Amino acid sequence: MAKGFGQFAQMQEALKKAKQVQQDATRLQDELADTTVVGTAPGGLVKVTMSGNQEPISISIDPEALKEDLGMLEDLVLTAFKDAYTQSTDLMRNKMSDLTGGISVPGLF
Length: 109
What we know:
By secondary structure, this protein is of the alpha+beta class. It has helices spanning 2-33, 70-100, and strands spanning 36-40, 46-51, 56-61. The chain contains two helices and three strands, in the order H-E-E-E-H.
């Protein structure tokens, strides 16, 4: 019978750890919402600011970029957005890895 109690204690400990990771993940989401990254297009003509949880915040377009044709301007905006998105997801991935000790936890993000 003692063996059964040991398994119960292990399960309780696992549940306690899971609850702590969930609380830490909630804190991390708040931290990421308050963190910003800036993606840029080549030459810095377009900048996109995004939160650490991939929420677009602002776009800045240098007046020089308006001298380009529409297709080029669209490419600059897209490039800056992709850069900001990549930085944001990398930041999230690194923070989650720190939080979970490198173990993938499905459903957290």
